[in-house]
Structures are given as structure tokens and as C-alpha cells.
Amino acid sequence: MKQYPQALTIAGTDSGGGAGIQADIKTMQACHVFSTNVVVAVTAQNTLDVQKAFALPTDMVDAQFASIYEDFDIKAAKTGMLADAEHVACVVQNIKKYHIQPLIVDPVMVAKGGTRLLSKDAIDSVIHDLIPLATIVTPNLPEAEAITNMTIKNHEDTRTAAKKIASMGAKNVIIKGGHQDSDIISDYVLLSDGTDFWMASPKVDTIRTHGTGDTLSSAIASALAKGDTIPSAIRFGKSFIETIIQQDIIVGHGHGPLNHWKMAGTPNEI
Ligand SMILES: Nc1ncnc2c1ncn2[C@@H]1O[C@H](COP(=O)(O)OP(=O)(O)O)[C@@H](O)[C@H]1O
Ligand SMILES: Cc1ncc(COP(=O)(O)O)c(N)n1
Which residues form the signal peptide (predicted)? Predict the structure, then answer.
């Protein structure tokens, strides 16, 4: 019997429900993909900021991978908050052990409220050990700057940064433009065959952007789990965000969550 499409998120939880694993589950659910989860860290968080974070003992992280790969037929995975170098190493080891592909690496570093979700000294491990395993790596602008050690001011800098990240071993690169201070937001995509394109959309004037990056990478992972091609999955991810960010829900007093219900009813086949 054909298995229902199944995907995996390897990330941190958000008690506020807007970002991290909670955003990933909601996105995959809206895409009609079954979501399994490896919890790397737990955060006490709301729409205002992260109040406390705790990374799980690595043997507990290993145990979750073992449980999932004993039973499920995972067709695509994504990483999010990985906390520190020890947990990056643990996740890398498991990705290799279970041959986890395709893999989307969202190199989450700092929450919208300003709290670090990846220690500074772990950035090197992400560059040297995790990015080379990525089918797609999806940094936002500050993350792309930290990874490449350059300042990104314009489209040309963005292209240069993407090439630099591709040269680190990532097959496909998306540099997300959500942090741009302009009326149009442009995400830049550099594919493994060297072709590239921009995905531009009007910047929605809202502070309810909690979990946009998690949602994008989970929507792409969902499309891949259903057998979509990489360029088509990337375009689907962008259209998913564009649709749901325009229909906000009033929850919390800070960077509110996205409205994943808006996409409920996505046809089972993309
Ligand atoms: N205000 C906005 N209006 C429309 N799209 C947005 C807005 N903010 C972010 N996005 C989109 O959400 C996705 C995630 O981008 P970004 O916010 O840069 O990532 P992150 O959450 O990792 O910081 C991108 O596709 C980006 O274009
Ligand atoms: C557990 C966890 N993972 C990821 C994010 C990033 O989301 P955002 O950039 O929208 O704050 C977060 N805030 N919390």
C-alpha cells in the first residue's frame, strides 16, 4: 500500500505556538503531509521574545531519530533551531546515520525578538558540517551575512553571498529577503545547475511575522515529500507565505503568528 507522505522537522519548540516545531507541524498539516519531529531544544517563548531555552540531552535527541527511523517512511526533512555546537554535531551524525535526504537547512540563529537560538561558536559547525549536507539552505539576510562574513546591501551582494554558500557545499541556496527595508521583498534562489531567479512580492505591512522562515522551509519540505521538483517546491513555499501572511489573526502582543488555517484545504496533490 502506498504510504501517506511523511516529513520530519528537527528543531526547537515554541511554547507560544508561532514558530519552531509548532509552525512546522501546522505548515505540514496544511500541506497534507504527516509531520514527525525531533525536538532538539525547548523554549519558553511568546510573541514578545524567548524567555528561556533548554537543549535536550543529546542521547534523547538520538533516541527520537531512532524511534522515527524505525517506523516512518520520511520523504523530506528540515532543520531549524539547533542551539549549540554539541547539538549541531549530534544532528549531523544522525543525518549521516539515517541518510536523511532531501534535507532543508534553515540556519536559525536569532529569534525575531532578538534572543540567540544558536550560539555564536556553533556557526562554524553549521558551515563546515551541516551546510554540505543540505539539499537547500535557507538563510535570511543576517544569517547569510554571518555565514559568509560579508555585508549584504544590494542584489549583487546577495548573489555573491549565495555563490559563497553554494561553494560551502549546499546544493541549492535561498537567501530570504524578509529583513529588507523596502516595499518589495525579494528572495533570491541559486539552483545547483547554476541557474537563478528572484521571487519578489509586496512587503505586507504587519508585525505578525513570527515563524515565517520556519513556515517557508516546512512548506518546501512538504512539497518535496510529495515528490515535487526543487524549483517548483521553492515557488510553492513562497506562494504559501504570500497567501497566509495577508490574512493575519490577532494573537499575542508582539510578533504574532501566521494564519496557517488560510492554507488548510490545499489540494492533496500539488
Ligand atoms: N512582511 C512580509 N511580507 C511578505 N512576505 C514576507 C514578509 N516577511 C517575510 N516574508 C517572507 O517570508 C519568508 C521568510 O523570510 P524571512 O522573514 O526573511 O525569514 P526568517 O523568518 O528566517 O527571518 C520569505 O519568503 C519572505 O519573503
Ligand atoms: C524554537 C524557534 N525556532 C525558530 C524560531 C525563529 O522564528 P522567528 O525568526 O520568526 O522568531 C523561533 N523564534 N523559535
Answer: none
